[in-house]
Amino acid sequence: MPTQISEHISRDLAELVRLERRAFAAKLRMARALLGWSQSELGFRIGLTQRAIHKLEQGETEPRRTTVRAIEQLWASEGIEFEDLADGGFRTSVCPALFDQPLTVQARRRRTARIQLGVTAIGRHAPAGRG
């Protein structure tokens, strides 16, 4: 019996880690979209490569604690806060001043493309304008 309990706990723990990694990946993509930054720009600001940011955003790798702290500090300095919810989801708060910041030409193009694809500021997808 102890082996079965141990295997069950291990599966539950592995699932919890997977869900936390996916939630962090979603936060990372959402914050980057709000800021209008490329993966390279985010990586430059926290000392990671574009490839490392890509892997984090895909949930492929478990971020180091120092990386998580650096990213969370960056979010706070830019006016983005995430609140983890009991059901495993999260809530986002964005400082209104963030929307007053001028965008670079590339960021403006990316934001326009996201709007055309139906991605909103709260990370949900609006229906694309199909017939």
Q: Which tags fit this structure?
A:
single chain; 131 residues; mainly alpha; 434 Repressor (Amino-terminal Domain); two-stranded antiparallel sheet; 5 helices; disordered C terminus
Give the gist of this structure:
This protein has about 130 residues and is mainly alpha-helical. Helices cover about 60% and strands about 10% of the residues.
Give an account of the 3D structure.
- A hairpin with a 5-residue loop joins β1 (80-84) and β2.
- This protein has a single domain (2-117), classed as 434 Repressor (Amino-terminal Domain), CATH 1.10.260.40.
- Strands 1-2 form a two-stranded antiparallel sheet.
- The chain is built from five helices and two strands, in the order ααααββα.
- Helices cover 60% and strands 8% of the residues.
CATH architecture field: Orthogonal Bundle
CA-CA gap between termini: 58 Å
The gyration radius over C-alpha positions equals 17 Å
| Fold-level CATH name | 434 Repressor (Amino-terminal Domain)
Number of strands: 2
The residue fraction in helices comes out at 55-70%
Poorly predicted tracts of residues: 119-131
Instruction: Report the major sheet.
Output: 2 strands, antiparallel
Strand order of the largest sheet: 1-2
Order of SSEs: HHHHEEH
How many discrete domains? Answer: 1
- CATH class call: Mainly Alpha
Number of helices: 5
- Could you tell me the strand content as a percent range? 5-15%
Structural class: mainly alpha
Mean pLDDT reading: 80
CATH superfamily: lambda repressor-like DNA-binding domains
Apparent shape: globular
